[in-house]
Design a protein that fits this description.
Blueprint (H helix, E strand, L loop, with lengths): L4 H9 L4 E8 L9 E7 L13 E16 L2 E14 L9 E2 L14 H12 L5 H8 L3 H16 L15 H7 L1
Parallel strand pairs: 2-4
Antiparallel strand pairs: 1-2, 3-4, 4-5
Length: 178
């Protein structure tokens, strides 16, 4: 039985270098109230993106992301993002916050794994965006934004098809046109 919160987060969420802070269950046994899983990034203090100097924490914010269901219930991943500022008073850098695309892509409301799931089942599986939105307990736009963000590079990839070896001919159209 695993008891290390870092390893538990890795097993349940598929994320390394993330600390599982805790889980909130604000519903009753029969509730479809989302479970709220709180996490934070681990790792070294980031360097300033402008001068490469030391930074210090300036507080943080909570970012709520929609994740895949767990145990038949919707899940919200609450990311405790830290805000950083450069120690050098002469540096022109503004403050910045934690960024980890393994957790979520910037400006999307879904976790990375939920966005990949949505893209796969809409694109390959042929499910409607609204049915995936119902399953993940979110709105249509949230799923559609993720499908566009994750699906566009797949559709535009010139290598997604192999070389053309034969070109088909529509016999019905050919016969009608003469």
């Amino acid at each position: 039985m695993e008891q290390n919160p870092i390893r538990i987060a890795e097993i349940l969420l598929g994320l390394k270098d993330v600390n599982l802070i805790g889980v909130e269950d604000l519903g009753d046994e029969d509730s479809k109230t989302p479970l709220r899983v709180h996490i934070e990034c681990l790792g070294e203090r980031p360097k300033c993106p402008v001068c490469n100097g030391m930074s210090y924490s300036k507080g943080g914010s909570l970012v709520e992301l929609i994740d895949l269901q767990s145990f038949g219930r919707p899940v919200r991943l609450i990311w405790h993002k830290r805000r950083w500022v450069c120690r050098d008073g002469n540096c022109s850098s503004a403050s910045w916050s934690d960024v980890d695309t393994r957790i979520a892509a910037p400006r999307l409301k879904l976790t990375d794994r939920a966005a990949r799931f949505a893209t796969r089942v809409v694109g390959r599986g042929g499910r409607s965006v609204s049915s995936v939105a119902r399953e993940l307990d979110c709105d249509w736009h949230t799923i559609n934004d993720a499908v566009i963000a994750y699906g566009t590079p797949l559709v535009e990839d010139p290598n997604r098809f192999g070389k053309v070896r034969a070109l088909g001919l529509d016999e019905t159209l050919f016969y009608r046109e003469g």
